[in-house]
């Protein structure tokens, strides 16, 4: 029973397909990179599963990717002997987009193809990019370990529907055939395909082979040999000096499923109690699902070149979830199970070391490439702030990396560090003042700032949601306590002049009856009524208790239903 059926793509897939075909057309050759990338992922998956079940290799452990053209049929075929897919997996992975936030992503598209192009790149188009050059795609696949009669044939012309049918497939793995559109014959040319493979997929660790026809000089007999097109060695084991920027970039695009080159690259061999290599990247742009803390794709763990897992949380703390790349350990046992990795001292050491590497890279960027750091902060600053809350061990280092808007220039773009702030502190000022509010505008126009502006004392303007948590965890910077300008009694200490002090003294005696009257009228609604000299233009303002909750934290908790 072939059980052939026709099914519709998920609505989102249809929309994405449409957009992609139009906006990525100028970069159409990337379909090959995407197919090779998937084949390579499938091989890694098989290798990993085979660590605990050798039978999955079915006697064939030499994993490869084959690429062939058929000029008469006008097709290109990409085949792998990786893990393959079951019928359910095909339905789940091809024709559906499981990524959370897809709806939101689609709403964010503007219709301006240059902008959308970048967005779609971020989203990761993968398999669907085949429809840029093909008007029909046929996928045949069989899951490793399932018998030959568990083959599946999937076919679609990219118009919103596909057919799926059971077939017999002796070899495991996946074979994808593209029936080229009329105008795409260039991809039938051998040299064109080879150059695309070399350009985008040289870093792929598996051999990518293409048939090459040679003629025997003596007999004139034609021979077909399989020629390996790529270098087929792991990029990260090569010497830094032997790797071009382009090779790093293409490797990044493969591991990160990104279309754009990264902002920064960290390539390091670590020696000591643990020996491992890291090849990590910081993307140029935040992915659309940056706020999805359950997103696990990010950093992959290898043991001596064999892929083990990509459970990001074990390798990177959530506040560095934007980091992409690989860690290859020389010491971990190859047959580690995911369960063992959950509580593994060696992994913890590697993770701690890697976090330090990332922080050092950011520190270097601050020093040597401040413009890059600005881009970084714009994209990932809010995420890095979580580190102050989450990572006690590195809190001081992270604090130095933070950037703020302040009353110095009321610039909504945060660019001022604690160190900048401290270096400008007034004579006698011993605190770092800040205000939190729902928005930058609300922060900068708060009446609480009047006295500070008058006295020329800089105040940090905090308006990210996370800032509320930040200030409850970061009590000081290099011995200077952080102080909210909206909390408690304002003590500007030595910055007050004698004159000001006397004025307050005098006023408090004179106005005592008035204050008493206010207390009576307001009753339980307030804890206290106080005279203040923190205002210069406004007649009154609300102030939180020193140990009470900040007014915007109160709002935040209310919003969270607490
Ligand atoms: P991504 O690679 O980002 O997951 P793709 O659209 O490229 O997105 O692929 C979707 C899914 O289809 C993959 O995650 C994988 O589960 C499955 N897939 C695609 N190609 C293959 C293949 N050659 N072998 C096995 N599974 C594949
Ligand atoms: Mg892919």
Automatic annotation (TrEMBL):
Keyword ATP-binding in record: yes
The keyword Cytoplasm is assigned to this record: yes
Which residues span the membrane?
none
InterPro entries per the record? HATPase_C_sf, HATPase_dom, Heat_shock_protein_90_CS, HSP90_C, Hsp90_fam, Hsp90_N, Ribosomal_Su5_D2-typ_SF
Give positions of region: A: 1-338
Where do the annotations place ATP binding?
34, 38, 80, 85, 99-101, 122-127, 174, 338
The UniProt entry's GO CC annotations, sorted and at most eight, read:
cytoplasm
Q: How does it assemble?
A: Homodimer.
- Main function: Molecular chaperone. Has ATPase activity.
Q: Please state which protein family the record places this protein in.
A: Belongs to the heat shock protein 90 family.
Q: What is the protein name for this chain? A: Chaperone protein HtpG
What organism is this sequence from?
A: Thioflexithrix psekupsensis
